[in-house]
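Session log. Operator J.P. requested a structure for one protein chain; no other inputs attached. Running the standard single-chain path with token output.
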Amino acid sequence: MTAAGRGRTVSDLMTDDFDTAYTEPDGSGSPPAPPGPDRTGRFLVVLDAAGIPRAMTGPGGRGPVVVVPARLDIVRLLTSADLLEALDGMAGLVAVRAGAVVGVVPVDALREEAVRLLETAGTELGVDSDPPGRSADFPDPVRITCTVCGEDNEFEYYVRTKAYTCRHGPHRLVPPSRRGGA
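Structure written below.
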């Protein structure tokens, strides 16, 4: 890993210029739809009754919710195929610490950081190049409770639109917002 990305985390890119709102599920089994673009330019993170982000809108409109730990290393984040797939149409990331929303990272900030890393990284971009003796800093995991079995599943990051298998049984992980739906 290069010096350009070393030590930078999601919290270095996030902003606290966002609002939150709580919503009740509509019974359809689908996550609530966020409102349209905010005329003030602020982000809105819609939370369920448990405080889990379920929807998000930004200045450019609606987008999927991607929840990541605020301590997650930027290079690890930007080398994730799941994140790169989710970038299209995304308003930004929701950063959490100890289960609480602490900020959002606008998608434009992610793109600028990716370009900066590519321009400065050269051939050393690989994430497996930590020098010997450096301890790995593991971020706080994101915990999602499966409504099928009631067990918690831990993820380094969680993409709401991706299907996951529950880690506690041979069944699909059904988060609380997907209750009653497939």
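Operator note: The mean pLDDT is 75.
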